[in-house]
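explain this.
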Amino acid sequence: MQHRIDANGDTVHWGYLEAAIPPRLTIASGDSVTMSTVSGGPEFIPAWAKETPPGLIDVHQKIGKPTLPGHICTGPVAVTGAKAGHALQIDILDIALHYDFGYTYVRPLSGALPDEAKDFRNFPSRIDRTTKLAHMPWGHAIPCDRPFFGVMVTAPPREWGRINTLPPRRNGGNLDNKELIAGTTLYLPVFVDGANFSVGDGHGAQGDGEVCITAIETGLIGTFRLTARNDMTLTWPMAETATHMITMAFDPSLDAAAQIALTSMIDLVTARTPLDRDEAYALLSLVADVRVTQLVNGNKGIHVMLAKEWFDKPVKRA
C-alpha cells in the first residue's frame, strides 16, 4: 500500500529527536510512503523564486523556532511489527527535487575550517528541476541529479531523552552520506517498537566532507519502502547500493569512526563469506574504500565501501 505525508506545522519535529514523539502515520511493514521535506526559513527564499513552499511557511507560523538547534524532520512514521533490538530496512525508491531554489552558506566558527569565513555569506542557487542543475551566483552549474536526504533516522532509545538532530548517532540521523540516493537501501537499528522513521535535510548536491557545513540545502520529496527486519540485528547504520555494501560510523574522532566502520565491514565479510577475520582485514586493505562522509556535525562520519562482487567470489586457499 502507498501512503503520503507532507511537511507542515503538524507533521514535523524541528531540531530534536525523541522516542516520545507520537507517530504522524502508521503503516504496515513493506508498505511505501512518500514524504516531502522543507528546509531553512523564509529568509532563505530568494526574491526570484517562482514559488513559496507552503509547508515551510506553515512550519514557521505554527512552530516558530526549533526546540533544539537542528533540522526540520518530517514524521515520524511507525512501522507495524518493527521491534526494538532489530532493524528497519529503508528502500529509497525515489527522490525528487521539491524547490526551484537552494542555499549554501558559510559562517565564522563553523565547518571543517572554522577560522576561514569571516562573515556569514549565503549563496542562493537557482534549481532547474528539468535539467537537474543548480546555478550558483558565481556562474557554475552544479549537477543535482543525485539528491539525497541528509537526515534519515529512527527514534532514539527512550533513555537518551530529547536530543538534537545535528550529530549522527547509532540510530542514523544527520548522516550526510551522498551515496544514499534513490535505488539505495539503508538499514537502521530500531530502538523503540514501531521504529518511528523520520526524514529531513534535503540536499541537492554535496561532496564527501560537507566541508563548509552546508550542501545545496533544499526541499525534497522521497518515496521509501519501510520493512521491519526482525531477522536482523544492527549496532550501526549500514547501506547497500546496486554495486556496494557500505558500513558507517560516527565519532568526534575520525580515527575512532574509521575503526568502527572497518570493524563493521570485517564483521559483515566474515558473516557472509568463508574468510576469517585476518583474511577479511587484508582484503579490505586491497579493495575497500574508506571515505570521509562529513567533518562538520560534531560526530564526524566515515563510511567504508566494498564492492558486492567480493562477497560472491569463491575462496580457494592454497
The two ends are 52 Å apart (CA to CA).
